[in-house]
Amino acid sequence: MDDPGTSLAPLTAAPPTWPASARRLLKPRAPRPVPGVAKERPAPLGLAAGLAPYTAPLDRRRAAHLLRRAGFGAPPEAVNALLGVPGHEAAAALVAEAAAAPAPPAPSWAGAVPPRDTDSDAFDRFVDANVRWNDELIESLYRQMYDGGLREKMALFWHGHFVTEHETYFFAPLAYRYTALLRRHALGDFRQFVFDVGLDPAMLIYLNGDLNTREEPNENYARELLELFTMGQFDAAGQPNY
């Protein structure tokens, strides 16, 4: 097929009805939640943690601990580079490095759009190519985690917060767009992050935004936005937030 280029705008369109070649790869949608009274939950744990800078020089054990917590490993050369550096300066340097890191280049298929004729041979070829693209994306994510340090650690953290599930939206271009969003906002402004993730096609398909209409609103995303992504059901005193 022709090189689809890198434009991502068309991906916001509603997905087509999948033929059998694609449906076998899709996970069935979860049933729409039934409105009701939220279960009462205990108040959050009142953990005490200090915010005073750790200014002591790092020894080998503490330097390795910092690198493991801020990334996915502690290579000896990286540990050696932090020996004797005050802890708060080492942490600030890791954050600055992560914030300044350039985004990895987009794959050639990042803007690929499926043929509209879902019964065509061209669509079947697109599905076959999409399986390969998904494998490429998974490999690239692991490679970025291996090399990427704090930014990739935070992108993985946000993946566990703004959760989606690939089996529900299937397309590798949507998965790439979602992971690129996590990486772009990994160390940025949370308000803007929340706004942008609410426009992400992978998120909207996963939480039924493509089923939301004026005549029959689907509130799944709105509920998750309040309950999981931002306020939570209860405040620190155990009182309902909404």
Please provide a brief summary of the model.
The protein contains eleven helices and no strands. With 242 residues, it is mainly alpha-helical.
Count of helices? 11
Rg is 22 Å
What low-confidence regions span 5 or more consecutive residues with pLDDT below 50?
A: 1-15
- Element order: H for helix, E for strand: HHHHHHHHHHH
Q: How many strands?
A: 0
| Proportion of beta-strand residues | under 5%
For this entry, what is the oligomeric state of its chains?
single chain
Structural class call reads mainly alpha
Principal-axes geometry comes out as flat
Terminal-residue CA separation? 50 Å
Helix content: 40-55%
The biggest beta sheet reads: none
Mean pLDDT metric: 85
How are the secondary structure elements laid out?
Elements: H1 20-23, H2 60-70, H3 76-82, H4 87-100, H5 121-148, H6 150-161, H7 166-169, H8 172-184, H9 190-197, H10 201-206, H11 220-229
Helix pairs in contact: 2-3, 5-6, 5-8, 6-8
Write up what this structure looks like.
The chain is mainly α and about 240 residues long. Helices cover about 50% and strands about 0% of the residues. α5 crosses α6 and α5 runs parallel beside α8. The N terminus is likely disordered.
What keywords describe this structure?
242 residues, mainly alpha, 11 helices, disordered N terminus
